């Protein structure tokens, strides 16, 4: 029975051992030795069951091997297929690898292998899966790699391969995955790669490829991933990529692409990851990208995009990562983006976005990183953002945010990095922020924070940073924690801080006292006061007393405060400006006050208007007070009414004081007066105005009774009728008279200019005044319509009440003129103007038109004028010069018969043209044709020329016309006329 059992067992082991040929086993041993097999993790892990033991048969138990049919068909040294699956292979792939001819899968990823890919590896023609990623392989991709015709997966990523992609790669027709990313490959990507239509994954990123993104990539319609990022590709993004509707990942980042974002890519509705960052793309983000409803990660950062973030992005509810930073985007954030409830990372930094963060973004409950830095955001942060409990990184620096940081943000228990520097935040930081137990970096710098700094000593450790500089913090705000921050964390920046206390200005007088103060928290402060930038010796207290003040104390005072605990920080007080005056305020003169002493005992009751007295004393000064003293300097309670305590006249001192203790004084008198009689003037009638005469002392003019109305002064000019009052004395001692002043309106007369007339001047109607031959309304009275025939001066005079007025003008009478009278004349061709005795020739009436002169020749019928002008006189005559060619007809000449008496230009072929008859003898010369007005119509040679009855192509009417023939030698001239008949 045991024998039967043993035989099958022996047969079984013999079958297993027979599975692997000696050549394959030798190849495995060569591989084991070349890759330092004894030090593989699988060999040193203490588990011998999967060791490569070459003393026995090769089995499936060996780490990473798959044996089928007696052959090694699989070698997987990274069965977990990740970076942690390293089996610690070192060295190179030996050439003997080519002896594993049945190998279908080879995975050596994430090891420490180096050297080149052996050429014999391309002999593994059964190979379908080749994964060599994450090693240190160098050299080029084997040029005969197209021998691996069954290959469907090729991954040589994350090595140091160089050179170009050989065309042999593009001939791997069954390839589904091609991953060459993370090498040093260069040159242009073979365009033939766009013919590999079975590709699902194409990763060529992180190399040094040049050229463009081929439009032909649109042919690879089976692609689910296209990665060309981190190369040196240029040109525009081809719109043909719209055909890749199955794409899940598209990465064109970190290249040199230009142009705009193609709207056509809206068709990539299955895309989950799209990255176009770090290029030179321009223009707006197409709103159509809001149709990418499957998008999880979108990065368009570090381009030159502009415009707003499309509101249509509110439909991208699957977004977890959005990076639009480092562009030129503008506008505000739409509240509807609150639909991004899955968002984890949002980066909009380094744009020109403005407005506030909408309260609705409290919905970002999964948010881990928010980058809004370097924008134009403003407003306050909403307390509702405390729902961002997963936030780890919050960067808001370089904006215009304001207000306090809500205390509810203590809920950010996962926060690691916070930078809100260079804003306008203010108020105190909540002590509860010390609950940020995971914090590594805190930057509150360059704001307006004040008050106690939260105690972060329990959360910040040796590698962490805290920055609070350029705020309003003082020593006492963090001196208890200073030693820890200064000595126990990597970086603590707390200096400088803003100046402390308010800027102040004091205006004081010499002799007064002034105390300057600075208030700064801290238990170990050291003070040093400065005046005009120089330290004041001994001024080392918080208060600086200046007593008494002198002019030399004027200047600008500051104080520097240091601390023996918080070393390295110097606080400076805001400046105090002191002005020290010698003079102080001014007490202006106050008018004496009078009251009537009816019983003559020197005492009376005065009406005191304190407001008026103060107004007189202060004038336009501000910040001063008024007090009163008697002659001995005793304060006086001046009331209304007030009875004098000094007989007849009591002096009252008025003191004007400022807040600095400076004052100035003036004195006015309370005067008890006796009854008095006012001056009296008779009623006055005056023309235009009246000058008030001088009055006796104590008398004053007023426009109203009882010294009311406007006070007038002697010498004032009064221009209107009124009653004027003369007042003297005060109260019951006063007296008043009045007189009536009547001001007559000044008389107005017409103003006439001097005139010059020919023979006579007729006086026009006057509106104001009458005509006289002598001044002052004397001489003979003249009237409208009177005729003045001699040169004379006349006066216009008018009298009204006490007023009169006069104007004058001179009438110049010039003798009449006469000009020569010429008769009408008729001449043949021209008329020569004769000499004139009186007048000049003109072509128009009134001395207008063209001036003509003796000897000028008139060649056309016209009317001429003889005109003369002298002063206001002129004379004119006219005559007509008729130019008539009939007057030119000479005596009968036998040759006249040669010139036709008529012609009929009717285009009937008979007598259509007028020409000289040359039949019996010849006339040589020129012929000129004229109309009855002497206008030249045609000029031609007598031998060869003729006239067809037109002028410039226009037919002339039937009429008489004239001709003039001049013989060639000039000896004979024949003129005459003929008829044109139609």
From TrEMBL:
Protein's name in the database: Gliding motility-associated C-terminal domain-containing protein
NCBIfam families per UniProt: Bac_Flav_CTERM (TIGR04131)
A GO CC term assigned to this protein in UniProt: membrane
Record InterPro entries: Ig-like_dom, Ig-like_dom_sf, Ig-like_fold, Ig_sub, Leu-rich_rpt, LRR_dom_sf, Plant_RL_S/T_kinase, T9SS_type_B
Membrane topology field: Single-pass membrane protein
Protein's cellular compartments: Membrane
Listed PROSITE patterns: IG_LIKE (PS50835)
Matches recorded under PANTHER family: LEUCINE RICH REPEAT FAMILY PROTEIN, EXPRESSED
Family matches, as SMART domains: IG
Highest taxon listed in the record's lineage: Bacteria
Keywords: Disulfide bond, Glycoprotein, Leucine-rich repeat, Membrane, Receptor, Repeat, Signal, Transmembrane, Transmembrane helix
Pfam families: CHU_C (PF13585), LRR_1 (PF00560), LRR_8 (PF13855)
Lineage summary: Bacteria, Pseudomonadati, Bacteroidota, Flavobacteriia, Flavobacteriales
Domain (Ig-like): residue spans on this chain: 496-579
Signal sequence annotation: 1-18
